[in-house]
Amino acid sequence: MKTVVVLFGGVSSEHDVSTVSAMSVINNIPQEKYRVVPIGITKDGRWLKFSGDVSLLPEDKWLEDKANCVPAIVSPDRKDHGIIVFENGGTEKIYVDVVFPVLHGANGEDGTIQGFMQIAGIPCVGCDCVSSGICMDKALTNIMADAAGIAQAKWDQILKHAFVADPDAYVKKAAEKLGYPIFVKPANAGSSVGISKAYDAQSLKEAISKAFAYDNKVVLEEAVVGQEIECAVLGNEEVFVSVPGEIVPCNDFYDYEAKYISAQSELKIPAELSEEKLQEVRQTALEVYKFLGCSGFARIDFFVRRSDGCVMLNEPNTIPGFTSISMYPKMMEHSGVPYPELLDRLICLAEEKWC
Predict the structure, then answer these.
(1) What is the fold of 155-222?
(2) How far apart are CA 153 and CA 224, in angstroms?
(3) How far apart are the first and last CA of the chain?
(4) What is the band of 192 on the pLDDT scale with cuts at 50, 70, 90?
(5) Do 311 and 294 contact (CB within 8 A), yes or no?
């Protein structure tokens, strides 16, 4: 039986979402095939092996079960090839076959964990260090998409020090280039954390200041009127693309509340598009996945512009949500890959790529 470490939590604005995703992943990994070792990373960066009830993971209730929380680290020494647990005044080494990072956002989806596992020589589910970093940084993704000729919204970026030096000048420049309304996003955050929609100069200033609370680089994008479409992609060299799904947000846009709190957002699988347009979205998702160097899995998000039907890249997500209402597993299941089989295939893909 192979040992899989599931990493969850993390020092990230998406810590809470990660704990919910991890609970679903742990509950659905085929128990007859894998021994699962959950390791939680607290908001202040402590690593703890958790052997208690996984239903306690959401809202960090697992931390209250102190008897089942033991300090543990992933060893960077390839000879150890696993985790070191500190308990009862001594240490225990546990050999690890694969690490499954269910870590959304910074310090988990941005290539840092992936690079650490590469140093440690442990196969890691999902994209590698370079591709994770590019996909996490919205500005880098947009630059790559422009270079590859992939259609996307008009956009711009700004660093914090440049904005602080002359906010009025930058707001004027952004309005002239993009027009209102403008979406403002931290360059390196996910789950719609820190995103705002600005309708005038004052709200744009406020939105930029809000985004800078999460990152020192901010991306601005023109608002696209159209359908929000997503594709689940799976594979290394041989790649499978799911049936596209559609998001109908309950709020003005698909913000954090619409994704994780409200039950009013509508998910449609397949998306309400013509068969020809569905195939175009799938083909574009495949192209984006490959030119960004993705492997293992990713969810690729698009807009289909209402005025002309143009398929426009929104963003890739290299560790998409795995909660009970998340689109990635739902689209895969609709495409014939049930949740437990999906997790099994992801673990096998990690071994295939890293071994």
Answers:
(1) Dna Ligase; domain 1 (3.30.1490)
(2) 7
(3) 17
(4) low
(5) no
Q: Of 5-9, 44-48, 272-276, 320-324, where does mean pLDDT reach its minimum?
A: 320-324
The whole model's pTM is what? 0.91
Sign of CA dihedral 305, 310, 315, 320: positive
In a 13 Å sphere around the CA of 54, the CA atoms on its Cβ side amount to 19
CATH no. of 2-124? 3.40.50.20
What is the 8-class DSSP label of residue 126?
S
pLDDT tens digits, one per residue of 253-305:
544 454 444 456 789 999 999 999 999 999 999 999 999 999 999 999 999 99
Return d(Cα 163, Cα 161) in angstroms, integer.
6
Mean pLDDT score of the chain:
93
What SS3 state is found at 300?
strand
- In CATH, the architecture of 134-151+225-354 is 2-Layer Sandwich (3.30)
* AA letter at 221: E
Calculated CA dihedral for residues 176, 182, 186, 192, nearest 10 degrees: -170
